[in-house]
Specification:
The chain is α/β, with parallel strands linked by helices and 403 residues long. It folds into 2 domains: 7-125, Rossmann fold (3-Layer(aba) Sandwich), CATH 3.40.50; 131-401, no CATH class. It is built from 17 helices and 14 strands. The chain has helices at residues 7-16, 30-37, 50-58, 60-66, 82-91, 106-116, 131-134, 157-166, 170-174, 180-195, 205-216, 225-232, 236-248, 277-284, 289-293, 298-316, 397-401; strands spanning 19-23, 43-46, 71-74, 99-103, 121-125, 252-257, 271-274, 323-327, 333-340, 343-349, 372-373, 376-380, 386-387, 392-396. Strands 6, 7, 8, 9, 10, 11, 12, 13 and 14 form a 9-stranded mixed β-sheet that branches. Helix 11 (205-216) crosses helix 14. The radius of gyration is 22 Å and the shape is globular.
């Protein structure tokens, strides 16, 4: 079993809140991890069981009288009727960790939690495996800190793209004999049939499937609602709704554009980042690692992978994810800005093993911003750190994703 970095954060939340809520996409290991961490006196109930689900929905008070705290309720979003009664019970006691709740349909779950358990529940968002978890590096390294960049053992280019291609879904590693294609095909069917179809205003599920494939090809690229709408044949309003579904269910995050009055003609479009690169590769139609690595999409998928690894690592450690990017109308761009302690750290992310100073020429866009600008550099496939100008470095991808 792979150790999960988020385990320490889950323990911290459980020790300080009356209710622990763990959400995230399907199949990222929420139930498995929580089962391994359960206190001995805690009972686990899954509302995937139709009989228990009916009982919880129709008579929530009786259900909670039958299954007493401390209680772990898995797939709790199927019975939101439980949440007001959980609120009443936790309000009557100062005990911590009375209820653990988990679910993958974040649309319904988080709406119910915000209405009934505000101030009572600590929320943890879980994602698929990171590179550090899969490489069992958690005891040796720390999450990437742009103010203290450390050199790490190099990672071969083929290995980087193998990780991007497969992604981090636990089932693909815990059951090596499973077919990647079969897994992701089943995953998408389950996601659409059990999650998406329950959301209002989705319309055609087949159109939604085509939308997911289209947006996967835009992984690491700006989100243009009008372009996607034209491809799918629906309105821009519909695309905005569908994008919000992917965000809420943890499939993607949006890398928001940096904004300052000091710079003119900046784009306002966010970038699309798939949180599991393997899912993005499957949806986009890549059948082999070589096909991905040699394609025109290799650079944008590499960029999205690095950013998703950073987002996962920061979330796992309870850190603020102050990540943006900057792009102007002339398409001058800085791929990633990380803000820590009011300092901006700029980074380019490129599929190159031949770094050159001119690859960082767009850093000059930050010369007139109000914020303090710290060290930055070129995150790439070169095998060691080295200076590339004043406060600029070549940064091997291993120093970012391996710690």
């Amino acid at each position: 079993m792979y150790k999960r970095e988020i385990e320490q954060r889950i323990r911290q939340i459980s020790d300080t809140f009356k209710v622990l809520v763990v959400t995230g996409p399907r199949q990222v290991g929420k139930t498995t991890l929580l089962e391994s961490m359960m206190p001995k006196n805690m009972t686990k109930i899954s509302l995937d069981d139709e009989t228990l689900r009916t009982e919880a929905k129709e008579n929530p008070q009786f259900f909670l009288n039958t299954y007493k705290a401390p209680l772990f309720i898995d797939e709790v979003q199927y019975a939101p009727e439980l949440l007001p009664y959980i609120k009443m019970r936790v309000d009557a006691s100062n005990e911590k960790s009375q209820y653990w709740l988990s679910g993958s349909q974040a649309f319904n779950l988080m709406e119910g939690v915000s209405e009934s358990l505000a101030g009572r529940a600590g929320i943890v968002e879980m994602n698929s495996f990171t590179y550090r978890e899969l490489s069992r590096l958690l005891d040796k390294t720390a999450v990437f800190d742009p103010s203290q960049i450390k050199e790490s053992s190099p990672i071969l280019t083929d290995e980087v793209f193998e990780r991007i291609f497969v992604g981090g879904m636990p089932e693909l590693y815990n059951t090596p004999e499973i077919s990647r294609n079969d897994f992701f095909d089943s995953y998408i069917n389950t996601y659409i049939q059990r999650d998406v179809r329950q959301v209002k205003n989705v319309g055609s599920l087949e159109d939604f499937r085509r939308f997911m494939k289209d947006i996967a090809l835009r992984n690491g690229k700006p989100l243009n609602y009008s372009d996607i709408a034209a491809e799918i044949g629906v309105s821009s309003v519909t695309i905005k709704t569908w994008v919000s579904i992917l965000i809420t269910s943890g499939i993607i995050v949006l890398l928001e554009p940096f904004y300052t009055k000091k710079l003119k003609r900046l784009t306002h479009m966010p970038e699309i980042i798939f949180m599991d690169s393997g899912l993005a590769c499957f949806l986009a139609g890549f059948e082999t690692v070589f096909g991905l690595q040699s394609s025109e999409y290799a650079g944008s998928f590499l960029e999205a992978y690095v950013i998703s690894e950073l987002v996962k690592g920061y979330r796992n450690n309870g850190l603020q994810t102050n990540f943006t990017y900057i792009r102007n109308k002339e398409t001058e761009e800085i791929d990633l800005l990380i803000e820590r302690d009011l300092v901006l750290y700029p980074f380019e992310i490129k599929k190159t093993s031949n770094p050159k100073p001119e690859m960082l020429k767009n850093f000059q866009m930050l010369d007139n911003v109000d914020s303090k600008v710290g060290v930055g550099g070129l995150i790439c496939l070169y095998d060691k750190m080295m200076p590339l100008g004043e406060k600029k470095f070549v940064i091997p991808i291993s120093s970012v994703i391996a710690g």
